[in-house]
Amino acid sequence: MSAEHVRLFFGLPCPDRAAREVIAWGLREQLKGRLIPAENLHITLAFLGEIPQARLNELLQIGESLHSSCFEITLDRFECWAHGLICLLPTHKPVALEYLAKEMAERLTQSGYKIDTRRYKAHLTIARKSPSRPKQAPSISWTVDRFVLYMSKNDGGRSLYLKLKEWPMTSNGP
Ligand code: ATP
Ligand code: MG
């Protein structure tokens, strides 16, 4: 990555309480491999990749233009993917999440970003290179009330996600 490029993605942060539950589940299931630290747990909305810094303002404007209501998400099943990746997913995909991801992909595509609009699958990665599979799924819920534009950096082999900007979602009332 050149100095003028930044690695970016839009995502949903996993709040502290839910992150603690995710970590506790990983411990209960004795997951090994590269466990994702609590502060990095998130659900990706759209991965942008290496983007010239000069386009940052445009991405901030796209973030600003997107609107969503708050919604509940419950991660109640897991999947094991290639390279020992273990992730948690919702059985019931929140309509507002599907809608936000679709709108975001469309806006980004219109602006010339290469986003896979066909197969969005909301998931929270908990481990990579895991030598074993979990046995029992958890049930971890939270209210999604914001989305974030992250910068992803590699710091001596560790991923660091910096929050560049977060946008609140509209509350559904009392
Ligand atoms: P590393 O690649 O060094 O292991 P990372 O995967 O944590 O670190 P990034 O590669 O910057 O960091 O990815 C940031 C987020 O975007 C992660 O949730 C990752 O799963 C997701 N992501 C990365 N590449 C893609 C891709 N090609 N398509 C969809 N999502 C992606
Ligand atoms: Mg990666």
Automatic annotation (TrEMBL):
Domain of life assignment: Bacteria
Keywords for this protein: Hydrolase, Ligase
E.C. code: 3.1.4.58
Motif (HXTX 1): 42-45
Record-linked Gene3D superfamilies: Cyclic phosphodiesterase (3.90.1140.10)
Reactions that this protein is recorded to catalyse: a 3'-end 2',3'-cyclophospho-ribonucleotide-RNA + H2O = a 3'-end 2'-phospho-ribonucleotide-RNA + H(+)
InterPro entries: Cyclic_Pdiesterase (IPR009097), Phosphoesterase_HXTX (IPR014051), RNA_CPDase (IPR004175)
Active site: 42 (proton donor), 123 (proton acceptor)
Keyword Ligase: yes
Domain Phosphoesterase HXTX: 27-82
Single GO MF descriptor: RNA 2',3'-cyclic 3'-phosphodiesterase activity
Root EC class: hydrolase
Motif (HXTX 2): 123-126
Family: Belongs to the 2H phosphoesterase superfamily. ThpR family.
HAMAP family linked to this entry: RNA_CPDase
Chain's role: Hydrolyzes RNA 2',3'-cyclic phosphodiester to an RNA 2'-phosphomonoester.
Record protein name field: RNA 2',3'-cyclic phosphodiesterase
